[in-house]
Amino acid sequence: MDYINTRRTLHQIPELGFEEVKTQKTLLSFISEMPQNHLEVETWRTGIFVFVKGTVPEKTIGYRTDIDGLPLQEETGYEFSSVHEGRMHACGHDFHMTIALGALEKMAEHPPENNVLFLFQPAEEGPGGAEPMLQSEPMKKWRPDEIFALHIAPELPARTLSVKPGLLFANTSELFIDFKGVGGHAAYPHRTKDMIVAASSYVTQLQQIVARRVDPLESAVVTIGKVEAGTVQNIIAETARLEGTIRTTSSSIMEEVKTEIEKLVRGMEISNDCTITIDYGSNYHQVYNDETVTGKFIQLMDELGYEWKEADRAMTGEDFGYMLKEIPGFMFWLGVDSEAGLHQSTLTPKEEALEYGISIVTDTLYHL
Ligand SMILES: CC(=O)N[C@@H](CCC[C@H](N)C(=O)O)C(=O)O
Fold first, then answer.
1. Which domains are present in the chain?
2. Catalytic one among 125, 131, 260, 290?
3. Average pLDDT of 325-339?
4. 351: which of 169, 201, 255, 262 lies 20 to 30 Å off by Cα?
5. Is 274 assigned to a binding site?
6. Interhelix angle 93-109/21-32, nearest 10 degrees
């Protein structure tokens, strides 16, 4: 398989969660070109399971990749930029998929001793594919004993990795807040309930939750990533909508932050004489790396001469956390050296990281 070409093909067709129809078709076509003797392939919604039968299996090792893109207009200037308007693989899932395909090809050509289950999982960016995929029939049939995954790290040099036992990624909850007041003429604000003023004031007050309500020894983030309100410059907005995300390093702090968000909403309803509704969208469980399996991985990396460093905890979220809640395993960061970070329209990971990633995953699947 030509990894660069594979990555570029996938890069051009990013699709949102549970809409990954072309992506699934393209992945199935790559998989169909591999030796099939030891493979069983099953689709699940827009995802795919591939079971590789081991030669003398004692256990099944799972390897998961996410496959969805983000609602973002690409600005990399690549010749192979996204052909889907307003969609981009800006979180590296094109890299993740290529690495999974590369490792799968090796397994198909030289079957491992243990069984291996590849999970091509939809909807990591939302609304979350890991939790329902865990409950699916193929997962019940081929349930792994251990599982792992990787995520690209733009800030790390290519051909490096980082990992740590214990907490790696945060608990997350999406946040959607809808404001409803009374619209009207821009010249008569006193006859209206202006939802742009209410929503702006709410965004400012939200910042106080982390600064003044959360124990400074804990970690939390509340980010509003989208504000929607108004129609034209001289009409006062009747409605406003805020979209954001909450991140915490413990589930109890998540509950505290939500309570504070709701208290602020009640105060805002009274002071602005409006109604406000909150929807928490999808929630992701924290990514907690199992100490024993992560320890085995670290030892393997040392034995095989891979350069690695201790990872820092990150406030990113990953629904792979649900898989790790039920199956011992880990996630590691793979360095890809890009000046622009994750979720930026100019993310340009170095393609030399692909072969390195495939080599780490393949070695781990053969020897874990
Ligand atoms: C690794 C990464 O960037 N993951 C996403 C997960 C998004 C979860 C959900 N849609 C939310 O925004 O809460 C992230 O933004 O961390």
1. 3-169+286-367 (3.40.630.10), 171-283 (3.30.70.360)
2. 125
3. 98
4. 169
5. no
6. 20
